[in-house]
Design a protein that fits this description.
Elements lengths: L2 H27 L4 E4 L2 E4 H21 L5 H30 L9 H4 L3 E6 L7 E7 L2 E9 L8 E9 L2 E6 L17 H5 L1
Helix pairs in contact: 1-2, 2-3
Length: about 190
């Protein structure tokens, strides 16, 4: 392994170190080097991918080049830059896609109304207990009160949300239509066939 190959490998390793540093400690020391170029972002991951491709692509070319000395360096630079341009472009596309990724809206009080849940801490007649709700498919535990005391395990329906973290609930059975006396909720086979 010649000196140009080692130099290119060190350049590639430094690029990996830059990327690792930005990913591991970037949030703590605020390493966010970027510049606005043609409406896009040239960020540290893009720079690291460019430098890394120059280093590792150059090391491969320098090692495979038939000559020695200047020929290795020129071949390494040519192949490294040729590999670095599409690599940096692809990294830039990935960074922009990650930055512009759409996410769900944060649930608000309006999202709580109508949610179904279950009592996890009993609800007294004059105070708060806790219920676990399903809001947008995600479980959520909030303070709750009801007009009547409710035991743990009771299924509930949210009728109001005075705050972001508290709701007013009613037992789900109170929302079901009353069955006339003498009828059960089970249908006979003849009724189901109709």
């Amino acid at each position: 392994m010649g000196t140009p190959t080692v130099v290119f490998l060190v350049i590639g390793a430094l690029a990996i170190g830059m990327l690792a540093l930005s990913l591991l400690v970037g949030e703590f020391v605020h390493i966010h080097a970027h510049a606005d170029v043609d409406g896009g972002w040239l960020s540290l991951p893009v720079i690291a991918s460019f430098v890394g491709a120059v280093g590792f692509g150059g090391a491969i070319a320098a090692e495979l080049a038939p000559g020695q000395g200047a020929v290795d360096v020129v071949a390494g630079l040519a192949v490294g830059v040729a590999a670095a341009v599409p690599t940096a472009w692809f990294a830039g596309r990935l960074v922009r896609a990650a930055q512009n990724m759409s996410t769900d809206a944060t649930p608000t009080r309006a999202h709580l109304i109508g949610a179904m849940g279950v009592v996890v801490s009993p609800l007294p007649a004059d105070g708060y207990g806790e219920v676990r709700l399903s809001v947008g498919g995600a479980p959520m535990k909030v303070n709750a009160k009801a007009a009547t005391p409710l035991r743990a395990g009771t299924r509930v329906f949210v009728v109001d949300a005075p705050t972001e973290t508290s709701v007013v609930v009613e037992e789900t059975a109170s929302f079901l239509p009353a069955m006339p006396s003498g009828q059960s909720s089970e249908q006979s086979p003849e009724q189901r066939d109709r």
